[in-house]
Amino acid sequence: MLDREGEHLDGPAEAGGELLILGHEAVLSCRFREKLTVFEYTISTTWRPVKMHSGIHLCYNEVNMNEKSTTLEDIVSLAKRRGFIYQGSDVYGGLSGTWDYGPLGVALKRNIMQLWWKMFVEARDDMYGVDAAILMNQKVWQASGHVDTFTDPLVECSNCHARHRADKLEDPNKCPTCGMSGTFGEPKQFNMMFKTNVGPVADESSISYLRPETAQGIFTNYKNVVDSFYPDLPFGIAQQGKAFRNEISPRDFIFRSREFEQMEIEYFVDPEHWQEAFEQWVALCKEWFTALGLPTESVHELEVPEDDRAHYSKRTIDFEFDFPIGREELMGLAYRTDFDLSNIQRVSGKSMEYTVKGTNNRFVPHVIEPSFGVERALMAVLASAYREDEQNGDKRTYLAFPEHLAPVKFAVSPLLKNKPELVEKAREVYQALKLKHGAVMWDDNGNIGKRYRRQDEIGTPHCVVIDFQTLEDNTVTVRERDTTEQNRTSIDELIAR
Ligand code: GAP
Question: Which ligand 1 atom sits closest to the C-alpha of 214?
């Protein structure tokens, strides 16, 4: 039927059929749901399918026995069940392309954003933070080219009137909503900015937009920062905050949404030295991925060809990640030249030139822009952390977050919640840990095994249990998420960690 490493499957596999593959190690069972396109398999071998074609080829790679491909459904369902991320306006049937962060999601998101701020702003002496208004003068978006060119190609199906992004269709002639072919007209350019009016009079002069990138709030403050601080070149201005895009087809959970957050840096350089700075930022982006705990082999660099680059860019590298939905853009690094500052200079009539200290050397600086999407970073962190294994014959799901990103660092439990002396001691430990770490959870629901499972699923690295021995010798059990090992530690040592 099928060779272990080979790729042959003889005969058609019908929906619901079952295939047993005798590898040299063990037996793998595959269940086909729809011919050969969708399948389930049980891991009972050191070989697993890594590719599934709609034809008759299967490929195998040697993998960790415990490893299973994480699907988007795994992540979405855990995120909702455990209070990370919910559909926006869920109670009213949702609003497409919007997501709400629950208690654990907001903690995870803040940990990511704070880590970024520490690494790229606080830890450096060439970086300045700003927090610009989301609503800006419409001239910003005219000068930046967004009013004219921030568009995606849109097609409408003449049968069901569904609208789709033309360049993302699997089959450019077939409507994915109604399945009809040949029903699309010519693509139209659709501007993705959300338009609004500022003030009570809705006319041309009051038009504004929800910003589609945080970058322009940086460029418009470049002169302010230079006037206030007169930094040496090169220097950077950083901003984090919401961005809005009226995406034609929001999709794949938080991957492509209409409201999301960006963390952007405009790094101003002498035009002679842009290449050096670009290479430095490639290395810094990689350090960031390591800090997020992303496996190096899951991050890929794509040199974006000229035709696919944004209108302002002379060079772009997209860092792509192997998401559960496939390899997709995680963030971008662009050489924006002096495009933005020169446009501001032209439209505002104010000089954007920088004078090198102690010289008459004046020029409009060029810009290297690393642009990080928070949601995509968070989705990559969730996907990298998601694990399933077996503990004492039971399937366990856990999130192996790096400790510095985990929304909850410690869970504290009394062994029995109906023993006041244990509860009192546990409360003491809880308060002391909370004072130090903040992100500490009290958990006395269900038996200890259930508490561990629940904490594993939200990625809590350490569970602390107070039992009768604690009352005698001031030690507690600390159970580690990844190894499930339990160690006895003194309370003083635990708090000093
Ligand atoms: N200032 C440059 C800029 O905005 P971009 O490639 O359009 O460049 C940068 O966006 C990053 O913002 C992307 O790499 C991605 O991480 C994130 N991003 C863009 N559109 C998004 C969307 N609709 N939903 C979620 N994240 C998005």
Answer: 1
For residue 8 the two structure tokens come to 């042959």
Cβ(27)–Cβ(18) under 8 Å?
A: no
pLDDT at 64 > cutoff 80: no
- Buried/exposed code over 179-203 (b: 16+ C-beta within 10 A; e: otherwise): eeeebbeebeebbbbeeeeeeeeee
Task: Give the side-chain half-sphere CA count within 13 A for 476.
Answer: 27
* Whether residue 440 has its Cβ less than 6 Å from ligand 1: no
Note the pLDDT tens digit of each residue in 110-128: 999 999 999 999 999 999 9
- The band of 24, judged by pLDDT with boundaries at 50, 70 and 90, is very low
Determine the pLDDT at residue 224. Answer: 98
**Distance, CA of 207 to CA of 170 (rounded, Å):** 36
Question: Closest Cα to atom 24, ligand 1: which residue?
Answer: 256
The residue whose CA is least distant from atom 2 of ligand 1 is: 371
Output the pLDDT for position 194: 98
For the chain, the straight-line distance linking the first and the last C-alpha, in angstroms and rounded, comes to: 56
